[in-house]
């Protein structure tokens, strides 16, 4: 199975979601946006680097590693490069059904700082050779390999089934895409409702939007994480399970995947904003 890569538009989207998510925090991404389109294209194209049709970074972990390296060290965005690089790497792995496990926020932070400072690999290059493009290429290859080794020790294939800890904000957006809304917030509960178009009238049929209450669910707050078992229950009562033609990949979409990683690794993303 070939490795799935991230496009320039997907990396831009990750950056935009991070900008939006951090906009009301102590560490907003300012100024936002792309500083240099060519540097971004160069960083993303590292995934497709090949010789005689053979990819230089053929397996998923190496491919994700070179993407992270490129975004982090090319600095294509005005700000938030380390944060965008980290989330892009996580989304790349997710796209290829690989996830990190048993990795603390501190370990991830230390890892990203080493990548940014070019200290991820133990390389000794004489200063007189520092401007040699050949030496630079060797150095970057060593760094990408070191990144890949770090990821490999802490990753595993994603098991079938539910896999995301999404926020209630993302749950609202996902349900809305399937025709459901969350309304009638009352204390710690909120109601799932569905609006359907029905035709009514004896002589002249008119299309009327009818509101159909489905069920009440817990509502601790927009930015709180939804328990996996609660997601399963909601998918069942809304007929959004695999037997209904909605598999997990269809239920969770790109924005919700990015959002889940931002929430899961928020502490390390906050720390990276300060360096």
Explain this structure.
By secondary structure, the protein is α+β, with helices and mostly antiparallel strands. It folds into 2 domains: 8-161 and 256-272, Up-down Bundle (Four Helix Bundle (Hemerythrin (Met), subunit A)); 168-251, no CATH class. Helices cover 47% and strands 15% of the residues. A 3-stranded antiparallel sheet has the order 5-6-7. The protein has a two-stranded antiparallel ribbon with strand order 1-2. The protein is elongated, with a radius of gyration of 22 Å. The protein starts with 7 loop residues before the first helix and ends with a helix. Residues 124-130 have low confidence and may be disordered.
Supply the number of helical segments.
Answer: 11
Approximate shape: elongated
The figure for the number of domains is 2
Quote the distance from N terminus to C terminus: 38 Å
User: Beta fraction of the residues?
Assistant: 15-25%
CATH topology of the largest domain: Four Helix Bundle (Hemerythrin (Met), subunit A)
What letter string, H or E per element, gives the SSE order? HHEEHHEHHEHEEEHHHH
Largest sheet: 3 strands, antiparallel
Evaluate the radius of gyration: 22 Å
CATH architecture of the largest domain: Up-down Bundle
CATH superfamily of the largest domain: Fic/DOC protein, Fido domain
Name the average pLDDT. Answer: 89
Task: Write a concise keyword list for the protein shown above.
275 residues; alpha+beta; Four Helix Bundle (Hemerythrin (Met), subunit A); 2 domains; three-stranded antiparallel beta sheet; two-stranded antiparallel ribbon; 7 strands; 15% strand; elongated
């Amino acid at each position: 199975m070939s490795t799935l890569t991230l496009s320039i538009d997907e990396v831009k989207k990750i950056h935009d979601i991070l900008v939006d998510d951090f906009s009301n925090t102590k560490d907003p991404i300012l100024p936002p946006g792309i500083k240099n389109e060519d540097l971004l294209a160069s960083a993303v194209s590292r995934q497709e680097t090949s010789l005689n049709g053979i990819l230089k970074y053929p397996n998923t972990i190496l491919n994700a590693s070179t993407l992270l390296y490129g975004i982090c060290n090319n600095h294509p965005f005005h700000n938030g490069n380390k944060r965008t690089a980290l989330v892009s790497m996580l989304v790349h792995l997710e796209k290829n059904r690989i996830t990190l496990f048993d990795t603390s926020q501190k370990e991830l932070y230390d890892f990203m700082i080493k990548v940014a400072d070019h200290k991820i690999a133990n390389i000794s290059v004489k200063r007189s050779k520092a401007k040699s493009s050949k030496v630079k290429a060797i150095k970057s290859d060593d760094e990408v390999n070191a990144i890949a080794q770090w990821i490999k020790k802490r990753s595993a294939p994603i098991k079938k089934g539910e896999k995301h800890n999404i926020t209630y904000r993302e749950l609202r957006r996902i349900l809305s895409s399937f025709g459901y809304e969350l309304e009638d917030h009352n204390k710690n509960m909120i109601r799932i409702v569905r609006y359907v178009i029905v035709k009514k009238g004896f002589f002249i049929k008119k299309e009327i939007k009818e509101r159909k209450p489905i069920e009440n669910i817990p509502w601790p707050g927009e930015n709180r994480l939804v328990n996996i078992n609660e997601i399963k229950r909601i998918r069942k009562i809304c007929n959004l399970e695999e037997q209904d033609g909605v598999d997990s990949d269809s239920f969770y979409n790109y924005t919700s995947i990015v959002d889940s990683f931002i929430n899961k690794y928020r502490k390390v993303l906050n720390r990276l904003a300060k360096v």
